[in-house]
């Protein structure tokens, strides 16, 4: 457990950054939150609004900050960048957000070489890999939110379909946070009952549930231009796992080393998140189809990463 001041700096004060800040504050897991944005007026306004929520929660210092705030932060969350627009895929954002992330990364580690960096900005797998490539010795400190949101969507939708609380649904979406992601049906279960044996199971229904989970962002963006509540909750869970040294198993995007034959790329696999960042990846048993899907995701992200200038 941390005995020092628990501080998070969030870079990007837009929808995702500000909502993540609010979620973290309301979870009462940190002592200080600093918001940084190229639009300083936005950062100041968001900080002021967030400050006024403090009387409803526990004590937390909230401020519009600068990169110097990273010096005494344990965690930096990157949400800065262009948002996915209707009709765009996450990979369409590569050039715009790749340049932004590269510049941010240099500033972060110049201020604090030991800080843990959580990448939220899309395409999250490509951008996480970009940072890891720039700072290879810090690979364990750098990881992306990956498919933590996709997995949450899948579990919610499965629970809704099968009339069971999503906390009792144990299933992962792995690979890219994007169109090549895949569900791990072979090990999915509900309360230790294999999914394919659970009352009401139908493979056709399960495939429909996965398609809804995979395409949820497109539907939400079409209606309100951005997704932010659920991913903010995921960011809060990650931050809590770091500060609490929880060794929580979360499907985050991290650098892989011979994971079912996949290496040298960042993809989401179940990983143990602790105070040091990603402490370990768990090698799930995958069937032959799932191994092919993982390798396909790796090809997609490697090809996308090559496009970065």
Strands side by side in the biggest sheet? 3-2-1-4-5-6
Based on helices, strands and strand pairing, what is the structural class? alpha/beta
Arithmetic mean pLDDT: 95
Which CATH class of the largest domain? Alpha Beta
Count of folded domains: 2
Q: How many β-strands, per DSSP?
A: 14
Helix content: 25-40%
Largest sheet: 6 strands, parallel
User: Helix and strand succession?
Assistant: EHEHEEHEHEHEEEEEHHHEEEH
Task: Note down, in words, how this protein is organized.
The chain has 309 residues and is an alpha/beta fold. The protein folds into two domains: 7-144, NAD(P)-binding Rossmann-like Domain (Rossmann fold), CATH 3.40.50; 148-305, Alpha-Beta Complex (L-2-Hydroxyisocaproate Dehydrogenase, Chain A, domain 2). It has helices at 15-27, 40-51, 94-111, 124-134, 148-162, 203-214, 216-224, 229-243, 288-305; strands at 7-11, 32-36, 61-64, 75-78, 116-119, 142-144, 169-170, 173-174, 182-183, 189-190, 193-194, 248-255, 266-274, 277-281. The chain has a six-stranded parallel β-sheet with strand order 3-2-1-4-5-6, with helices on both faces. A three-stranded antiparallel β-sheet has the order 7-10-11. A three-stranded antiparallel β-sheet has the order 12-13-14. β10 and β11 form a beta hairpin.
Structure, briefly:
The chain is an alpha/beta fold and 309 residues long. The protein has helices at 15-27, 40-51, 94-111, 124-134, 148-162, 203-214, 216-224, 229-243, 288-305, and strands at residues 7-11, 32-36, 61-64, 75-78, 116-119, 142-144, 169-170, 173-174, 182-183, 189-190, 193-194, 248-255, 266-274, 277-281.
